[in-house]
Adenine DNA glycosylase (Acidocella aminolytica 101 = DSM 11237), 300 residues
Amino acid sequence: MLQQTVVATVRPYYDKFLAAYPTVTHLAAASVEEVCALWAGLGYYARARNLHKCAQAVVAMGGFPDCIEGLRGLPGIGPYTANAIGAIAFSLPVLPVDGNVERVTARLFAITDPFPGAKKSITKAAERLIEDKDARAAPGDFAQALFDLGATVCTPKSPNCLICPWAAHCQGQADGLADTLPVKVKKAERPRREGVAYVLLDKANNVVLLRRPPHGLLGGMLVLPEVPPIMARWRQAGTVEHVFTHFALTLTVRVARVSALPEGVLSAPVGSAPVPSVMRKALDAACLALNHAGDDKRSA
DNA sequence: AACACGGGGAT
DNA sequence: ATCCCAGTGTT
């Protein structure tokens, strides 16, 4: 869950998740649809599908791998997470290199090559840190201390070098470069796309949803139809804006209410439907539009 | 090596 | 507005 996501965002999802799946066996026995529902709103939904597959693989092999190579072979476990589990769970002498460790390392050794090209050399430099005797004595603590140093002291902007325990050893600080590292190449401008979402409600406020294919954007998640699911008097409900990683979306929302939904369609209560954030915005816009329509009728 | 893949909080 | 976060998988 913490891959590319801050702790404060993850916490409520983590709590829900562990309440639903106290052990890896529970998670493996769950349906992927239920796992996706618990993940709705957290983003990067491949993580949910991979974690579920990972749990099934772990159960199938009778337990967790306890070496880096074994962990690395599991779905959703890349070089970072394999090392994080290795260091924290198994006290292996490895260093998980996350964004914090990259930044601290780039500054500590004054590495001025720009990302992402310098990622390799920064990772190699970071790995040297775990060769220290005290670090190897507690690899999990060392890694987590480094995360926290990056998150609270060696921050992306205006790092607090005055209170940094490593300031005396920091080449970036000595060179007066600390706040300029790591150097990053400017990312391409985010394109803008447009789309339409149809919100079909019944009298009990159930909304028609579709399940996305298991790969690609919002893979495996419940979403609103992009084409009208039935002929109806569709009302405009305005537009919502949403920014994805690599494009910005303007979504036009249309809404209709019918006495009963078509037979066999997926649906959920509009207020609690487990959908990605962009779809939650669309549902809220649709409900707002309907409420205003009701106001107009009452006043007329 | 480059790209696809969410969402939200900090600045 | 921009940056960036306890990154991974695919092309």
